[in-house]
Structures are given as structure tokens and as C-alpha cells.
Amino acid sequence: MAIAGFLLKAGLASGEAQAVGEALVESTQGHNNVQDMAAAVASTAAKIKADQRVEGKAALAKAIADDGPNVVARVLEWLGTGERTTLDGFIADSKGRIAAAALNNIRLA
């Protein structure tokens, strides 16, 4: 699930990402899919730890549809990530330009 990657990459701990994700899933899809979030957070956290690619902001924005990029940006503001990032996960400066020397950007490229 893109929400798991998004929340974990935004800096939430696994337990926090699971709690937020479960609340979102329950409010939008009902109780039956809450168990899926626990598994999604666990498997996504393992992939991140192994430096494997995971879905995140871009996939979540696409799933939300037309206003997805704005919703994702607002959630990042609420979470106070402290970094500006593009939908592809690159760290950007205050003018939205990709920071060439950022280690995360080098890994993504």
C-alpha cells in the first residue's frame, strides 16, 4: 500500500504508520481491511531497511486522484517532515529545485 511507504518515508515509526494507516483504512474501507495495513507497514518497513524501492508519495497522490499532490503536500506539512520533497521522493530546496548533492537524491537517481 502506498500509504505505508508514504508514512514511513515521512519519518513515522512503524507503530505510528500502522495506527495512522489503520485509521485511514477503517474510515474509508471498513474494518475488514485494517489487517492489511499491519502487513503492509511491516513488509514496507522491511523493504526500506533493505534499501529496496517502495511506493510512496507519487503512488498515493495518484490513488487520491486530481487533488492528490495537494493532499500529500498538506499531510507532509502536518507531519512536519522538515524537508521539501518532490512526488518522486527527491529532496528539493526552498524553490523546488532538486538538491543534486543530497545523498537520498543520489540513491534515487
The share of residues in extended strands comes to under 5%
Low-confidence stretches: none
Major beta-sheet overview: 2 strands, antiparallel
Q: Helical element count?
A: 6
Q: Percentage of helical residues?
A: 55-70%
Q: Ends: how far apart?
A: 23 Å
Oligomer: single chain
Topology order in helix (H) and strand (E) letters: HHHHHEEH
User: How many structural domains does the protein architecture include?
Assistant: 1
Can you give the mean pLDDT? 82
What sort of overall outline do the alpha carbons produce when their principal axes are compared? Answer: globular
- How many distinct beta strands? 2
What do these coordinates show?
The longest helix has 16 residues, at 14-29. The protein has one domain (2-82). The protein is globular and about 45 Å long. Strands 1-2 form a two-stranded antiparallel sheet. 61% of the residues lie in helices and 4% in strands. The relative contact order is 0.14. It has six helices and two strands, in the order αααααββα. The protein is mainly α and 109 residues long. It has helices at 2-9, 14-29, 34-49, 57-64, 68-79, 103-108; strands at 84-85, 91-92.
Task: Give the topology, please.
Layout: H1 2-9, H2 14-29, H3 34-49, H4 57-64, H5 68-79, E1 84-85, E2 91-92, H6 103-108
Antiparallel strand pairs: 1-2
Helix pairs in contact: 1-2, 1-3, 1-4, 2-3, 4-5
Task: List the defining traits of the structure above.
single chain, 109 residues, two-stranded antiparallel ribbon, 6 helices, 2 strands, globular
